[in-house]
Records
---
Amino acid sequence: MRHRTPSRTRRIFRGVVYLVVLTFFLFPIFWIAMTSFKTGSEYLHSPPIWIPREPNLNSYWHAISGGGLGAMRNSFVIASFSTALALLIGSLAAYGLARYEVGGQNLPLFFLSQRFLPPVVVIFPFLLMFKALRWVDTYQALIIVNLTFNLPYTIWMMRSFFREIPREIEESALVDGASPFVAFWRIAMPLAVPGLIATGIFLLPV
């Protein structure tokens, strides 16, 4: 009994901790879901109403009929294209940094530092460029802006994944006559798919 009690107590304590942490993270999702079915009076009611007394879909109808569907479409297009371009261009740069050690250890940190660049710094240059190209209020303008901030993070993330891939696999392909790009595209990229997925998940909400 002396050996079982600490183990059982530890399991119970761990379960309680997991439950508290899970509740902490899932409660906002539950609250948002319940709020979406409330009426206006229930939403502003004090004290708050946890479960809607008269569930309805008015919020969803207003979001769709009031132009919200177009806004969601715009967000989807911009996020998808900027993420895809960031993964493609960033993977090429990250592979070069991982395999050829260009710029030493400081260059990857330099790329990462651009991720923390205040957006206000690039607003005016972007505005001048987009006016010259007649890209104001277009998809491509917003895609390029998002790409500017997504690309440094992609390079930093993917460089770590490429460094975990053994060089010997690519060297074998080079010995068999493959070009460096073929070794990258057909060997390194498929092996780095988990990294691409993880990086894409981080980039999409941005």
Note: The chain has two domains: 4-43, 68-203.
---
Amino acid sequence: MGLPVPLAAGLVLSVFPIGLFPAQAADGCAPGTSSTVTSPDGNATSVLFDDFSAVGGGTAGIARGTTTCNLSIAVTQPEGYSVFAVDYRGFVTVEDGQTATITSDKPGEQKTIRTSIDGPTQEDVQSGEQIGGFGSDTIQLGVTIIAEGPVNETDFAAGLFLDTIDFARIGFTTAGSVTASLDQLANQRQAAAIDLMDTAQLMLGGYQSIQGETSLALFGSSNAPAAGFNGRWVRIPL
């Protein structure tokens, strides 16, 4: 049976006897362990963490440590389409054979963004992505960090520590603006098609009338393809 070892407020790591190496999950943004800073215009928000970390492998006593934080970020213009750049910053330490991973996903979507860091390395980590939102006054994002590797008594534990997650709106439009742009594009395409048809008729003889008995001009089209010809014949007396 595992012995609970307190790590920080809201986080408890269970240490199991050698031979039992389960995964351990924790809450990365328990009440009182994170704070937010928002720009005056509301278009950028930084989430600062006191202890958003995952530890596993090596001497940690568990093969895989997992910590999750579910974020809800306010959107200043919920009636439109917004695109946000999301940056993750922190520190990673992994030995050979160990891996640290950052994953993120939006509720209701199957798309998952994943960044993996293989050992050996000890360095600052920065990872980024872009997410979108429409028709809501918040952006929902689930962020999970994972540290894993073989459990042994010789390697240091793998660790991933996130300090901040930054959200910055980089694009915005409204449904009305999108509709107007599509209508304008359709009108431009229609005008271009009419100009091309006029040019084709001129080149292929569509504007030339039949002149007497010895001249013929025809033009025809079906959707995009067009064809025409000019012809003249001479009657030979018998």
Note: Residues 101 and 116 are 4 Å apart (CA to CA).
---
Amino acid sequence: MKRIYNTLAVLGTAVAMLGSFSSCEDYLDKEPDSDVSADAPFKNFTNMQGYIEEIYNCIPNKAQAYWTSAWNLGDDEIQNPQADGIIIHQIDLGNYFAWQNNDQFWFAAKKNGLDPTSADAFNHRLYGHAWYCIAKCNKALASIEDNFVGTTEEKNMLLGQIYFFRAWWHFEMMEYLGGLPYITEEIPAGASPRFERLSYLECADLAAEDFKKAAELLPIDWDKTEVGKKTLGNNQLRINRITALAYLGKNYLWAASPLMQHGAQTGGTRTYDYDAEYARLAAKALGEIITLVENGQTQYEFASFDYKNIYNHEKNSGVDWSYSELFFTTGRAGIQPGGKEALMRGPSTGWSYTRYNYSRTFGPNTLCAQDNHIHQPTANYVKNYGMANGLPLDDPESGFDPTHPWKDRDPRFYHDIVFDGVQYINAKPDAADAAMKYAGLATGGSMRAVANASRTGYFYQKLVPHMCQKYDQGTVDDYGNAPHAYIPYMRLADVYLMYAEACAVSGGRNGKSDNCSFTAADAINRLRDRVGAGHVADKYNGNAFMDEVRRERAVELAFEGFRFNDLQRWLLLTEPKYTVKTSQEFIRVEDDAFFADNDPRDARVAEFREEEILTRNFDSKHYWFPLLRDDTYIYEGFQQNPGW
């Protein structure tokens, strides 16, 4: 743990640097003498909030951490061979050590180029900043009592943010690495402490205490406080009571989950074996949020799923924030995506990182001429998108027809997935590209080149619309449109999903928390009502209902970077159904004239089948990332994760 301790050891001398508050100048004016002494950051609200703003600034942008980035590490995504050096394929190979130095990975332990004050997304990584930010939190907690002068409200809001961030940075590391030292004290400069590596559950209990303190101290809405009036209308990214409760619930649900309760193992036999008490605590925290939201007592609400043209993400008139705008905005003066549904986001600098190269990595490289690292959904994952009636594809009563596989699907399928025949180019293409006007994703189609197009038979456009290519760029991601892409760390839909899972542990589909009127089934159906999908069928009970909760999570949170951690905590990461990545193979029956006059969902196909692209050779060690080798060599008691 030399790097960790070195980071912490310099804290005593780092305060002078932190006193510059350069990351907060857009929010709060620093006082002229704020970098006179090491205690200056803690003497009043303005200075101390500036100190905390640097922690916000360290939150990595998951999708734009480098020229091209990767964040979907489960069975959900694959890329073309030119991207084999990026983290997705390295995980496919079982090379988990790649997390430590892969520039394209937001979680990485990047050693060079990190800068907590930088507005450049390339200068931020999760592990690379985590111990520094935790040290900042502990320094603030050690200093506030002796130095701070201000109102009780000011002090509470400062402390609430600090407790939240101390827990959040620990929790984000725990998701991938397991139990770690949970640092709660200031480390003097030059010290060489020997912190014990705790179990996952011991860490989770400590994180819960910090999240609870944050929830108790923070307001629901900063704009409705005296403190928040100083930055009225600019408080959307600030941590509040709802954010703290959401992560408290997530922390408890993760602690309740099979991996954390039973340890890494293969076979999948304990995938439904949760801890009931942790699940109850999760449901309580999340149920409080749902009750507040449903009663209109928060600033949060669901984005609208109301479209004039769902394939082009064209919302109907009168819609403020659409579902698409949770992840991508255009023509809105560069406003950050997320709307009123996003609960947790970091700062984002906008269009330049969107346009170079993020928005051009979701389609054929001949049309999206940036780096040839193309994000593609696997066919095995696309099967999670069930039917409009709410049933999964493999239910005998679903109505799924393999000769019309795109017909009557869950409405999110048409929003998220580019399938064969979707009009991909709205403008008139050159003759050389004419065959790609209607997505040629059938076997042997115009967009099926493994090297620079789709190797799976699909693209996805949930996060970025298909118009981000050379013919239609002027409508969405060119300079004048000020496009802005961002994937929230937490949004309101996730609260309902986690609540449903937590309640289902003991109560099945009718399980509920005492502080919320919603049952587990109600929470899932609330999300399906938003998009116009059918409710969970009454016949799904017990483990079958939990499977539907998990499938809903796969669809609603698709491609947002959560799938790996879900399969991990459910003890399914090593199981055959989830280790195979497949392509969709079929013969297109219709011609281009059909697609010019008809909805592509009505198209016929023949010989609809899947073919294996690769299989991950995973065993129990692949449930956790390996720790940095340097960290495990410092002293005998700090052990590497098993198998590494």
Note: The first helix runs from residue 2 to 9.
